[in-house]
Specification:
13 strands; metalloendopeptidase activity; signal; alpha+beta; seven-stranded antiparallel β-sheet; Gln_synth/guanido_kin_cat_dom; 46% helix; single chain; Creatine Kinase, Chain A, domain 2
Length: 381
């Protein structure tokens, strides 16, 4: 297989700034035990009678996971409205079939060895290429696509978002459990997925479309990949959509948090794009420096001291949101974007329950209850 680089570049040159697409991944659960159950195909087939849902539901590696997609919204408000309706219909389908849906970065206690890879050419290829690494990846995320016009500009936006990724991870951390135990981490999902998959995590800074294209051409020529979707970076240009796709965040247990986090990501992409346009000075931090903050976000989330990479001093992780809001204030004002996140994120709330003596099943049941009560709402807020 090959990549049509000329077409991909054309897609970006013709893209529209700040269109938005949302992708939310959910665990498919037995409604009683809240264990993972392989019923994606059942939900997909049931959704086939609804044209809106038929085009919005997708599989993600294992049969106990389902993704719901907004499609391209003209802006954030449009994408949210589209996604809210799709959420409502998905949760209704699940309830009709006695299925629960969970939204944390990992499933706390279901054994990855019991999960089945879905029957698609792409995921069979992933399994064959990665084996244990693929089998082990029972993780759930929020992905946000933001339209960026111009191929070089899109690459430079990705470059500027590299040091932002650990802050977004700290804010979104929501997976303290994995393999039936408290991992001691705030984002076990990131350790399981991002630190295991090849071509994953924080990408290099490329500077230009030509340098990016040369790298992909190298991967193809050396039989490292056969399709672009085998590049799993935490931020990447999407060659089919003309978007910058941010993929660093854990799935969020409440709809309000998912909406607010998506708004923050849109603001970050838009502000980076404007900074590129206006020539705002920027020096790409060395990967080793960004990795220091990535580890702190994985381990301690918002409870971590993060590092101001320019000044080489620590700052409280709890200030990550404040810093991103200050940076994005111009574009948030221009685009009418509001971000309202709770004081404690998902990992912190779960850890408060753990510290109070709650068991793994009790903690997870509370997150599933929050998910059901917020994502299934019909009213758009």
């Amino acid at each position: 297989m090959s990549i049509d680089f000329a077409n991909a570049r054309r897609v970006f040159e013709e893209s529209t700034d700040f269109t938005v697409g949302l992708e939310e991944e959910f665990a498919v659960l037995d409604a009683g035990s809240l264990a993972l159950v392989p019923r994606f195909e059942e939900l997909r087939d049931a959704a086939g009678a609804d044209p809106l849902m038929a085009e919005s539901i997708a599989g993600e590696l294992i049969s106990s996971e389902i993704e719901i997609r907004s499609g391209r919204g003209a802006d954030l408000a449009d994408a949210r409205a589209r996604q809210h309706e799709r959420r409502r219909r998905l949760f209704a389908l699940a309830v009709e079939r006695g299925i629960a849906l969970g939204a944390t970065g990992t499933h706390p206690f279901s054994d990855y060895r019991d999960q089945r890879i879905i029957d698609t050419e792409h995921y069979h290829r992933v399994e064959e290429g990665l084996k244990y690494v693929a089998w082990r990846n029972n993780t759930f995320s929020l992905h946000v696509h933001v339209g960026v016009r111009g191929a070089d500009r899109a690459i430079q936006v990705c470059d500027r978002l590299r040091p932002v990724l650990p802050l977004l991870l700290a804010i979104s951390a929501n997976s303290p459990y994995v393999d039936g135990r408290d991992s001691g981490l705030h984002s076990a999902r990131t350790q399981t997925f991002t630190k295991s998959f090849p071509r994953c995590g924080v990408p290099d800074a490329f500077g230009s479309w030509s340098a990016f294209e040369q790298y992909l051409d190298f991967l193809l020529k050396t039989n490292s990949i056969v399709e672009y979707t085998q590049v799993w970076w935490s931020v990447r240009p999407h060659l089919s959509y003309g978007t910058v796709e941010v993929r660093i965040c854990d799935a969020q247990s409440t709809a309000g948090e998912s909406d607010a986090l998506a708004a923050l990501i849109v603001a970050c992409v838009a502000q980076a794009a404007r900074d590129v346009e206006e020539g705002v000075p920027f020096v790409d931090p060395a990967p080793r420096l960004i990795e220091e903050n990535m580890w702190r976000a994985i381990r301690h989330g918002l409870d971590a001291p993060l590092i101001d990479l320019e000044r080489a001093v620590e700052f409280p992780g709890a200030a990550a949101l404040e810093r991103l809001l200050a940076w994005t204030a111009p574009l948030r004002a221009e685009l009418g974007i509001e971000v309202a996140l709770p004081e404690l994120n998902g990992a912190q709330r779960q850890r408060r329950m753990i510290d109070a003596g709650a068991g793994i099943e009790e903690v997870y049941a509370a997150t599933v209850r929050d998910t059901r009560e917020t994502y299934a709402q019909e009213v758009i807020v």
